[in-house]
Write a structure and sequence with these properties.
The chain has 368 residues and is of the alpha+beta class. It has seven helices and 18 strands.
């Protein structure tokens, strides 16, 4: 046990000066290896090598940076920057496209001739368009050219500017459009579209006419159809009168199902003042139900309902009339007649006069 302790105490210790000398030797070795290497990346950031990582680990980041940056290394760094600049200057420059001058001078080897194509309209609208005031309108067309042509619109020679009511758009398929959100009377006139680029220009014209807005009135019922009751086999008339501008479209429904008229049995008649008559011949039980009449135009809709009831005839036997019993009555004439005397002519002078006239041959004259 004693011997072991003696052997441990006899082990030589490394002094601080020897350790520092070993570090300096390692640092000098690292400096020699770093001088001949490129420590810059393409983006300008420093690239740490294995030696630099070891120096940072042994000395720390700050001490390693102060030790590694030496005058010789600074000269080497400046030399590398000069080499990199020289390398950049030696890179062949790309050929730029140059446009030929007005004199036609140009180097064919150093430049590429750029081609131009004059604008050409592939699709244009009709020469004349008529739109009602207040409506939506658009003028579509398609144009080609190289480079892409610039487009301008003129109305009667005045430039058209985009605003809330006029818009100029282009679709993905290359169609251009001049859009009128709400057509006004001032939009009427001759429109000219001009497409231009470096190669030339092209144009087309459109005449836009704006029709005055028609006065409109929603349908209203002057008198409505009335509910009726008819018998089987008879005819039924459902009549009403409607006031509207413009003339409305009329629809009839029976029990919420569209009615098929203009047939042999069911007909619809119109009159100039707006009278409408639905006529049904030979009514049967299937015709019974609720009828709805609707009038529709651009200004609105009016609807009214009525009911049609269908009844069946009931035939009852006609009673035979009773015979009247005549009672015997007393009469003066009957008493004289029973005795053989005819006294009735004595009480009627007109009969006596006729008898005398017939015996004498006298007749009444027409001149009297």
């Amino acid at each position: 046990m004693y011997n072991k302790q003696v052997s441990i105490k006899s082990t030589p210790k490394t002094s601080d000066r020897e350790l520092q000398g070993t570090k300096e030797a390692l640092i000098q070795d690292l400096e020699r290896k770093l001088r001949g290497k490129d420590n810059l990346l393409h983006n300008g950031n420093q690239r740490l090598t294995y030696e630099e990582k070891m120096a940072r680990r042994l000395l720390g980041p700050e001490n390693a940076a102060s030790v590694l940056v030496t005058p010789n290394e600074e000269n080497l760094h400046n030399l590398q920057q000069q080499n990199s600049e020289n390398t950049r200057l030696q890179v062949p420059a790309t050929k730029e496209r140059s446009r030929p001058s007005s004199r036609g001078e140009g180097n064919e080897h150093d430049s590429i001739q750029e081609k131009f194509f004059q604008p050409r309209f592939l699709q244009v609208p009709e020469n004349k368009m008529t739109v009602e005031e207040g409506r939506f309108c658009r003028i579509d067309f398609k144009v080609s050219g190289l480079p892409a042509p610039d487009l301008v619109w003129y109305l009667n020679g005045r430039l058209v500017h985009p605003d809330d009511f006029h818009k100029m758009i282009v679709s993905e398929k290359g169609f251009h459009s001049l859009i009128f959100e709400v057509v006004r009377g001032s939009d009427a006139g001759t429109y000219e579209c001009i497409a231009s680029n470096r190669a030339g220009e092209a144009s087309f014209t459109v005449q836009l006419d704006v029709a005055a807005k028609e006065h409109q009135k929603a349908p209203t019922f002057i008198f409505k159809p009335q509910s009726k009751k008819v018998y089987e086999g008879d005819s039924a008339r459902l009549e009403c009168q409607i006031s509207a501008i413009p003339t409305p479209r009329i629809y009839w429904k029976r029990n919420n199902e569209m009615l098929q008229y203009n047939t042999d049995r069911i007909s619809l008649f119109y009159d100039n003042p707006g009278k409408i008559c639905l006529l049904i011949h030979y009514v049967n039980k299937k015709d019974a139900g609720w009828y709805t009449v609707s009038a529709v135009n651009e200004a609105g809709v009016a609807t009214c309902h009525c009911r049609l009831d269908v009844a069946t005839h009931t035939y009852k036997p006609v009673p035979t009339p009773k015979q009247l019993k005549v009672r015997p009555t007393f009469s003066k004439y009957l008493a004289f007649n029973s005795k053989g005397l005819d006294v009735k002519p004595a009480f009627s002078p007109e009969g006596e006069f006729e008898r005398l006239a017939a015996q004498s041959g006298l007749y009444e004259s027409d001149e009297l």
